[in-house]
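Feature request disguised as a bug: please show the residue count (441) next to Xylose isomerase in the output. Example input:
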Amino acid sequence: MSTGFFGDIAKIQYEGPDSTNPLAYRFYNPDEMVAGKRMEDHLRFAIAYWHSFAWPGGDPFGGQTFDRPWFPKAGGADTMDLARLKADVAFEMFSALGTPFFCFHDADVRPEGDTLKESIARLDSIGDYFAAKMEETGIRLLWGTANLFSHRRYMAGAATNPDPDVFAYAAATVKSCIDVTRRLGGANYVLWGGREGYETLLNTDLKRERAQAGRFLSMVVEYKHRIGFEGAILIEPKPQEPTKHQYDFDVATVYGFLKEYGLENEVKVNIEQGHAILAGHSFEHELALAASLGIFGSIDMNRNDYQSGWDTDQFPNNVPEMALAFYEVLRAGGFTTGGTNFDAKLRRQSLDPQDLLIAHIGGIDCCARGLKAAARMIEDKALSGPLDERYAGWNEAEAKAMLSGERTLEQISQRVLSSGIEPQPKSGRQEYLENVVNRYV
Ligand code: XLS
Ligand code: NI
Ligand code: NI
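Example output, currently without the count:
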């Protein structure tokens, strides 16, 4: 039985680029083949439980703006009944949008208990409720995670807290979240360390805290193998916010960290568009780097407001940006366990249930357009052709010998001096390539 929250909604259909129906897809056509694969299987869209169903619409200057039937009444308690109603509405939305996956934190889906035991029992009970709905609808779990940043016990970090009791509490919490993720057949488990950093170095032993984080992550990996969880473990980099400095700053930093603890073959990254921007990178930079290091896992899709400098988690609406992002995803071989999770929320004035649908429809269409443009660029070798040409010199025997270790610095020097090599600069053709990209988007 429908909750009626969205009124009489039918499943959102693909109507093609000319449609003006706000509740239809114009570019996302799940069964359409793109580069040899169904669009749905390329994009693997997921809806984030927290932004769409748990977030009340607050900002640093004001509280709740959304009125949702599953929010506790003013002064009232949060209950399991409300948590189940929230799940009912969430699965109605996943089904209407036809998105194959969802993602959640423990704190999004169940009211916190008085003890950890009670919190875990509630999580398990909602897990069972999800299992039945997943069975009924065919919707799957892209990833589960633990919220180790909202409660005040985590204000000075979870794994990196100066208090070993917080480390232990976080470990027990993560264990329970991996357990439920595994039970629900989750394709990944994500760790985002919002408070794993510092506000000031004056009270922080950075060396010790990084070592704590290393041990914590190693235990997560050991546990995953012990229980036979088949999903990937993913770290989600972010440079700051809420902390002034976060230890998982960006893809390069995470890779160094994984190497230090011997985890580079065990853990991959979940790269978020807005976090890349906060770190002073482009999204495609983070994707290309992760792919080149062999740690590309999944993406969190959103965008920041480029003027405010905050992690505003808006829905993506810039097709050229998405084209470059999915170009890197395709070049990396596409998703395996990963997918495209909308870690994006409405603006706080977007009060209507329909706004939730429209926001996702727009984001989904934007990604679909980006994917299609990226696939055509690859098919036409629009960028890879000029790239191969640019590096063609390296196909020659003498050039290969320099890289393979067959030449010493002295030998190279001798060859250059005796043959009188004078390198001739060639155009990098940036504007030409930018114009080429614009032909596809
Ligand atoms: C916050 C993060 C968070 C993670 C999951 O900035 O993006 O939402 O994706 O904990
Ligand atoms: Ni984020
Ligand atoms: Ni995220």
